[in-house]
Design goal:
With 166 residues, the chain is mainly beta. It has three helices and twelve strands. The chain has helices spanning 13-20, 67-72, 86-94, and strands at residues 25-26, 28-34, 37-43, 46-51, 54-58, 75-80, 104-106, 112-114, 119-131, 134-146, 152-155, 158-161. The strands form three sheets. The protein has a seven-stranded antiparallel β-sheet. The protein has a three-stranded antiparallel β-sheet with strand order 1-11-12, with no helix packed on it. The two termini are 28 Å apart.
Length: 166
């Protein structure tokens, strides 16, 4: 097996993405309300930060056309996508304003809530931190929903699911 060793920089961006892609993640869709209507974005940059108080983070790219809407959102929902929600995750990766393909409702804060997600974290913005070409958005979790099932995964540029060992 060959190894690649390099110093990250502008000329090795692809190699860095390939190396980071070795780490499999779950797939989320983050939703919020904006002056132009509901907005969503597919993200795999999601992490638990604290149990007490309950906090999570996610990181939108500054180059995203939806960046400004999420930077202005005081409330948002992070949906952990179930294995059967690949089409929804892909659709929101392409277009965050088109909700025609998704089953959803609005919560009391006007936040779009996707049905059938494996888990959902309804959050209130706590802080935003500059992080290079992304921003870290830290939220306090106000409400949680979760159900049985398998999550949608992303690794090395491909979507899949998790096969438990027997």
């Amino acid at each position: 097996m060959s190894e690649t060793i390099f110093t990250p920089g502008p000329e090795t961006t692809r190699a860095l993405r390939d190396a980071l892609g070795c780490y499999g993640t779950g797939v989320t869709v983050v939703t919020a309300s904006s002056p132009d209507g509901p907005v969503a974005i597919t993200a795999n940059s999601f992490a638990s930060v604290s149990l007490d108080p309950p906090m999570v983070l996610w990181c939108p790219a500054k180059t995203s056309t939806r960046y400004d809407a999420f930077m202005a959102a005081q409330h948002y929902a992070i949906h952990i996508m179930a294995e059967g929600q690949l089409a929804t995750a892909q659709a929101f990766a392409r277009d965050g304003a088109d909700f025609s393909h998704a089953e959803w409702t609005e919560d009391a804060n006007g936040i779009p809530i996707l049905t059938k997600s494996l888990a959902r974290f309804d959050c209130r913005l706590i802080a935003q931190h500059d992080a290079g070409d992304h921003t870290i958005i830290l939220g306090e979790v106000e409400t949680v929903l979760h159900r049985q099932g398998q999550g949608l995964m992303f690794k090395r540029g491909q979507f899949g699911d998790f096969a438990p060992r027997t």
